[in-house]
Structure formats: C-alpha cells, structure tokens
C-alpha cells in the first residue's frame, strides 16, 4: 500500500485545523473532495484518524501518531525538493526572481543585462503579498523585489533600488480629484482598499498605520493584487496608497493620483537570503543598486 504525499498534506491540514471547511479552503479544494480523500486514507490505513460529528473534529490516538510522522515526512520532502531545484537552477545558470507587483523602472532590463553578462538568466515568479520576502525566505526564489514594511526580515539581505513618494489613488469623481496633493490629515478618514490580512506588515504599511497613532484605518474592501486594487478605485469602492512609480505602471481611466507629502517614502528592495554570497547575487545587487542611485 502506497500513500501519496497529497494524502498526507490533506490529512495534516485537517489535523491542524480540526475543521474540514477551513482545511479545504487552506488547500484550495472543495470540502467533499477533501472528505473523500480522508475517508480513502482511513480505508487504506485500516485505521480511524478522526472522531467527527456535526460540531467538532478530533484526532484519534492513531491520528495523533500519524500527524507527528506526516509533518516530518512532508518537511523532509519539501527540503529535498528545494535542494534539488536549487542545484538544478545552478547547473542551468538560472536565478529565480520573485515579484509582488510589476517592477518597471527599467529594473528587469538592468537585471537581465547584468546576468547575461556572466552567462546567467532570470526566471520571474509572481508571489503573493502574504510573503513579504517575495518567496526568498521560503526558498521558492533565489532573490526578489519587494516593498519594505516598517521592519526588515533578519533572514534576508537587501539593497534599496528605489525610494519614492507615496501617492493616494482616488476615483476621478472624488472630492480631491482636482487636487495635486493633500495632507495626511485631510485623507486619514478615506475608506481604503487594503491588502489581505495575510500580508501582515505590508498591509499595515500601505494602510499608513504608522501615521495613525493607534487609530484604525477605514477599510472599504480587500484586494489581492495591484490591478484589483486600482479597479476598485476606478469603480469608486475606495482609495489606495501607491508609490509614485507604480502610479505610472498602474494608471487607468477613472483614477486620479495625488501626492501625500507628509507620509514617509516607500522603499523598493532587491533582496536575497542572508549569507548567500554567490557572485551572481553580488552582480545582480550591484547593478540594480547602481541603477537606483543613478
């Protein structure tokens, strides 16, 4: 009897959540599919793993034993996979770059030229906002472009490649749409389009919570991508803070941008794992920093 890693991931999610619906959402599968997989796993193992009724889900002693082993197996497999992928990238001279949003500013052209000069090439991966290190800390990416929040992850080294004023994107029919700038005091009560809660400190930064002295930011809705956020602005759902450079990248009909000069600037960083001293990282970081300083 062979149990697939997928079965162990499904089991572990249910065991940690103790809730089938929440586990299904975490795994991006339907609840009926998850229930069938767990039932099949119990059948294959000839053991009951969960005690469940309409109100609760609990692990059996067999389930607790399997959870301990399953976690180690999944961790070992994930570590082995990352090691193999890293070695394959090295052999192929590929540097995987994580991106939270569009970068623009000529950065990718500069990066590609610098890597090509040493016979490497970049491979771009879009990552979710809930990873403030653009896939670097998790090992999914070798390096990445990410906006810095109010704190810096000690597991990453970085260089700042752009520092830009923060602007507010408002609907073109907004009361401030004819203005070129506004103070934070004038806009502090504006309902905002927020990043998902999973984005944590980046969500906090782009809600300007550091300037609110403990007062909560008014939130109109959440958006998982910059495009989604700006579409909500165009629809009149709410406003959103954005860097000056991104106001060019994401400009669209129905949206007006105004400066907020009393907010601290946004900093875009190129980052990599702390202790990664490879020449390819040094070359990439140096080229991007020089472009940012130009």
From TrEMBL:
InterPro entries, sorted: LysR_HTH_N (IPR000847), LysR_subst-bd (IPR005119), WH-like_DNA-bd_sf (IPR036388), WH_DNA-bd_sf (IPR036390)
Highest taxon listed in the record's lineage: Bacteria
Ranges where the HTH lysR-type domain occurs: 1-60
Pfam hit, one: HTH_1
Keywords: Activator, DNA-binding, Transcription, Transcription regulation
GO CC annotation, single: protein-DNA complex
Entry annotated with the keyword DNA-binding: yes
Coiled coil stretches, renumbered: none
MF GO annotations: DNA binding; DNA-binding transcription factor activity
Cross-referenced Gene3D superfamilies: Periplasmic binding protein-like II (3.40.190.10), Winged helix-like DNA-binding domain superfamily/Winged helix DNA-binding domain (1.10.10.10)
UniProt keyword Plastid present: no
Family: Belongs to the LysR transcriptional regulatory family.
Protein name: Transcriptional regulator, LysR family
């Amino acid at each position: 009897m062979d149990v697939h890693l997928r079965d162990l991931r499904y089991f572990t999610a249910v065991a940690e959540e103790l809730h089938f619906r929440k586990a299904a959402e975490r795994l991006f599968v339907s609840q009926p599919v998850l229930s069938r997989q767990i039932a099949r796993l119990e059948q294959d193992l000839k053991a009951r793993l969960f005690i469940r009724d309409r109100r609760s889900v609990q692990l059996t002693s067999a389930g607790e034993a399997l959870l301990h082993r399953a976690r180690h197996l999944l961790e070992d497999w994930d570590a082995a996979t990352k090691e193999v992928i890293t070695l394959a990238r090295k052999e192929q001279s590929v540097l995987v770059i994580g991106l939270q949003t569009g970068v623009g500013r000529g950065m990718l052209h500069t990066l590609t030229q610098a890597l090509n000069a040493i016979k490497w090439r970049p491979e771009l991966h879009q990552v979710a906002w809930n990873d403030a290190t653009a896939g670097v800390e998790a090992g999914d990416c070798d390096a990445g472009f990410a906006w810095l929040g109010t704190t810096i992850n000690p597991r990453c080294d970085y260089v700042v490649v752009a520092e830009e004023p923060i602007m507010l994107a408002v609907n073109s029919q907004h009361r401030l749409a004819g203005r070129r700038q506004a103070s934070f005091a004038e806009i502090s009560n504006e309902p905002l389009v927020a990043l998902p809660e999973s984005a944590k400190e980046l969500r906090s930064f782009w809600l300007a919570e550091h300037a609110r002295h403990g007062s909560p930011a008014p939130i109109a809705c959440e958006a998982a991508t910059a495009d989604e956020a700006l579409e909500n602005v165009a629809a009149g759902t709410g406003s959103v803070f954005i860097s000056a450079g991104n106001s060019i990248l994401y400009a669209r009909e129905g949206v007006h941008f105004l400066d907020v000069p009393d907010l601290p600037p946004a900093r875009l960083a190129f980052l990599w794992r702390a202790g990664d001293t490879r020449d390819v990282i040094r070359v990439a970081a140096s080229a991007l920093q020089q472009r940012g300083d130009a």
